[in-house]
């Protein structure tokens, strides 16, 4: 039996739409650090400067993209793997830079960018070594952040210290990793403020 022309067209159109829907992959999910809450731990000492320039963090090129990475320590610790359908809404280097600036500002220090810097204002430089979700087993992971902080005044290095923090993920997926990395970043911000509070700034 021959179908009416208009009915045939409708069937073909429906088949085309179904095929188009089937060819689409899952919609990516985007994460960030979430709202900035009050600092859980207030450093015992405060930074010795009222104004501080904080440069944007430097790091390996894979941290300058929106891809979320994880490592299977129990299988191949040398391989960094990207999640297929999960992304950061901003590259991790930018997320971490902004979080550290916000936390330092919460301590009462006026934070400036390098474009606003004036002569004589101390400069804090951040070099990120690692920022990833590490799986010890298939069901347990943690967020790990490691960075090196260097404080300069002019061209003089005042001090330098390496910070490393890990925090357990609440779930063995990208969401748990994002939460763990946010918590680890906040913990490093507290450590950073404590370190700055121990320094003595030389006179110009």
Jot down its keywords.
3 helices; 204 residues; alpha/beta
Beta-strand content bin? 25-35%
Shape: elongated
- Strand tally is 8
The biggest sheet amounts to: 8 strands, mixed
Helix-strand category: alpha/beta
Identify low-pLDDT runs: 1-22
Mean pLDDT: 86
- Helical content band: 25-40%
Total number of helical segments?
3
End-to-end Cα distance:
95 Å
Radius of gyration equals 23 Å
Order of helices and strands: HEEEEHEEEEH
List the helices and strands and how they pair.
Elements: H1 5-23, E1 29-31, E2 51-54, E3 67-72, E4 76-88, H2 92-106, E5 110-112, E6 123-135, E7 141-153, E8 156-168, H3 174-198
Helix pairs in contact: 2-3
Brief characterization of the structure:
With 204 residues, the chain is of the alpha/beta class. 29% of the residues lie in helices and 33% in strands.
Q: How would you characterize the overall build of this protein?
A:
This protein has 204 residues and is α/β, with parallel strands linked by helices. Helix content is 29%, strand content 33%. The chain has helices spanning 5-23, 92-106, 174-198; strands spanning 29-31, 51-54, 67-72, 76-88, 110-112, 123-135, 141-153, 156-168. Strands 1, 2, 3, 4, 5, 6, 7 and 8 form an 8-stranded mixed sheet that branches. A hairpin with a 5-residue loop joins strand 6 and strand 7 (141-153). The longest helix has 25 residues, at 174-198. The chain is elongated, with a radius of gyration of 23 Å.
């Amino acid at each position: 039996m021959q179908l009416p022309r208009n009915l045939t067209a409708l069937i073909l159109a429906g088949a085309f739409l179904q095929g188009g829907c089937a060819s689409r992959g899952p919609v990516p999910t985007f994460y960030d650090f979430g709202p900035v809450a009050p600092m859980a731990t207030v450093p015992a000492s405060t930074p010795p400067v009222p104004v501080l320039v904080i440069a944007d963090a430097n790091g390996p090129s894979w941290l300058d993209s929106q891809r979320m990475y994880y490592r299977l320590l129990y299988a191949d610790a040398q391989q960094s793997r990207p999640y297929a359908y999960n992304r950061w809404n901003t590259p991790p280097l930018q997320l971490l830079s902004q979080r550290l600036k916000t936390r330092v500002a919460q301590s009462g220090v006026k934070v400036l960018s390098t474009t606003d810097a004036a002569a004589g204002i101390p400069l804090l430089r951040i070099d990120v070594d690692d920022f990833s979700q590490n799986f010890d087993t298939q069901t347990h992971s943690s967020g790990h952040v490691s960075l090196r902080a260097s404080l300069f005044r002019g061209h003089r290095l005042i001090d330098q210290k390496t910070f490393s923090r890990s925090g357990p993920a609440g779930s063995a997926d990208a969401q748990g990793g994002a939460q763990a990395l946010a918590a680890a970043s906040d913990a490093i911000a507290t450590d950073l403020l404590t370190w700055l509070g121990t320094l003595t700034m030389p006179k110009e």
